[in-house]
Amino acid sequence: MDSNDRNPNDRRWLREWALRIGGTAYLLFVFAFLVGHPRPGSIDSLTHALGMAVVPALIGTLAALAVMLYLRRR
User: Fold this and answer.
1) Which of 24, 32, 33, 45 is such that its CA lies 20 to 30 A from the CA of 6?
2) How many CA atoms lie within 13 A of 53 on its CB side?
3) What is the value of pTM for the model shown?
């Protein structure tokens, strides 16, 4: 199998796993930032957590996908 045959499959595989890993990571970081807020459970803590969770979830998702893709191609 050459690289041209594998690329569409890899892209589809990455898309599927990116949604799963990204969604899970985002929710975990939202919960972590909710608990770490001075007033956990308030609307203020929720809006703070929703904004703060994006960057760590994105970084964690990209790192996990890079490792998974490396191991898949190996």
Assistant:
1) 24
2) 22
3) 0.79
